[in-house]
Amino acid sequence: MKRQIVGSRIAPIFIVVLMSAPVFAQAQAAAKPASAAKAWTMPRTPDGQPDLQGVYSNAQTVPVARPANLGSKEFYTEADRTATAQAAAARAARPAANDPEGGALAVHYDTSQFGLGGPTVKRAASLRTSIITGPEGRIPALTPEAQTRAVERRAFQQEHQWDSAQTRPLGERCITWGFEGPPMMPVGYNSTLQIVQGPGTVAIVQEMIHDTRIIPTDGRPHAPSNIRPWMGDSRGHWEGDTLVVETINFNPRTPFQQTPLSDVAKVTERFTRLDNDTVQYQFTVDDPKTFVKPFSGEYNMVHIDGAIYEYACHEANYGLANNLSGARATEKK
Amino acid sequence: MQIQSGMSRCQWGKWLLAGAAGAALFSLAVTPTAAQAPAYKAPKTKDGKPNLNGIWQALNEANWDIRPHAASQGPVYSLGAAYSAPAGLGVVEGGEIPYKPEAAAKQKENYTNRLKLDPEIKCYMGGVPRSTYMPYPFQIVQGTDTIMIVYEYAGAVRAVNMKAPTKAPADSWMGWSNGRWEGESLVVDVTSLNDQTWFDRAGNWHSDALHVIERYTPIGPDALQYEATIDDPKVFTRQWKMSMPLYRRLEKNAQILEYKCVEFAEEVLYGHLRKQPIQGKGDSK
């Protein structure tokens, strides 16, 4: 589908805001009750593998990092959930003009256009307080080396961000949004993916930006390490009913939550089908050049009806040209 | 370009002979359709379907011009022999594309202005059928209800729906694909293609009324016959067909690599908006 990049300088900010807000009140219950799960048997492909195939939403109500005031609390209680749902309902019911907190109605965007209007996007229910697991619930600190890289990157950006297409952010250039992973992270909108399994291959197509990961599961070695694809080089294997994917040879320009992984990074992902509607997604990032310690995360993706539509990002990229011509016009003033 | 003259009568005779042989070869090359090919039974997947899984690539010159064509100078003189167009016998059955007169004129215009207009130069997705015979491999991943076709060029991808046919919500670059099995052939009905893609670098074109029916038929363990029936009443006077073999990439551990070409097209698309123009208009690094 042709989709214009509307206000491409604004959209990423929007996404960050969304992901830091735990709006789990909008979750649509997707997990099956425990009794149903008992009767359920793992569907298999004709080859006998667990069948992960389908179209899924990995949109989340859970933020990447745990809100600081929650400390080491990894899960909300049911009582927490009820209270938040009530507060959100009350906020949504207030007329925008009278809303001191600037509720949903005060936002002048049509949020549903971006898939941000909670009820229109199916999300797996979760009581997690953060996607990153463990007592800290956040991405560990950067190593001194990575901090230096980040400072250099910011300095270059400040100086050169309006110079040319090549110095604009990768997302604005329609090269990668950085959410495609691995690890694959929820995107602010169009957070959908499709898994297809052929003999010896698992393909994952992500709507953003029509990026396909082809994961061989036939035991072959990695491609030579001087080939560094934007999404790294992935190899998979089955451990019981779990698809385990190991990825190395990352491109040091691909951002993961703002920070590119280094040339020694290794990401391990685990895909496990929990029931007809749900695939559990777990990941571990091990990059000693970038983070002071490895970390892991987890979320569920939930089955949705329908197909993935074509996100022709580059083909309809008016935003990039507009930004650059704006910069040139500003210089002439 | 001017053909260098100076051939003797004898040389002309040889040339004519070669031409006749070429024409004979050409008619051979484009006529074997699935129906005429010796009945080959493809290995089957575990659920009994012809197994088309693998990495495939065309080995022809259709991306330069789908019609029969002689070699010609490339559009950027500084690239010399390395990026000029190789000759090809063509993949259009009968050799001629049945353009309406005004549509034929537009093809010539497209060709003249191809450096500005060819969507391949801009790294736009190749559409159907062009993506099939661009000089890059593609992979077929045969799932249960969906067959994914993943192209190396521009990271384009198509999901072929093998369940009850569905309708596209809107036009797109790679179109909307509903597939079915007919004997040994995978038949894909492709609709809702936009009018932005071309058939080749020669400016052969279509409108948004394009309807393509593709047939992928195994003709040996490592080859498929590919046919695309082209219907576009806005541009052509009748339906026509192209046909070519596709070959399996047999290299050990062959895989689709990335050709995320956006970066390679940015100077062409946005170079005029640079703060500091590149010296020499970006002809070389």
What does this structure look like?
The complex is a heterodimer of chains A (333) and B (285). With 333 residues, chain A is of the alpha+beta class. Helices cover 19% and strands 20% of the residues of chain A. Chain A has a 9-stranded antiparallel sheet, with no helix packed on it. Chain A has a two-stranded antiparallel sheet with strand order 7-8. In chain A, a hairpin with an 8-residue loop joins β10 and β11 (295-303). Chain A is globular, with a radius of gyration of 21 Å. In chain A, 36% of the residues are buried. By secondary structure, chain B is an alpha+beta fold. Helices cover 18% and strands 22% of the residues of chain B. Chain B has 5 helices and 9 strands, in the order αβαααββββββββα. Chain B has a 9-stranded mixed β-barrel. Chains A and B meet through β2, β3, β4 and α5 of A and β2, β3, β4 and α5 of B.
Task: Explain briefly what this protein structure is.
The complex is a heterodimer of chains A (333) and B (285). Chain A is α+β, with helices and mostly antiparallel strands. Helix content of chain A is 19%, strand content 20%.
Alpha-carbon Rg of chain B, integer: 20 Å
Query: How far apart lie the N and C ends of chain A?
Result: 38 Å
Helix/strand class of chain A:
alpha+beta
Helix proportion of residues of chain A, in percent? 10-25%
The residue-averaged pLDDT of chain A reads 85
Count of helices of chain B? 5
Low-confidence stretches of chain A: 1-32
How many distinct folded domains of chain A? 1
Give the low-pLDDT segments of chain B.
Answer: 1-32
Strand content of chain B: 15-25%
Tertiary shape of chain A: globular
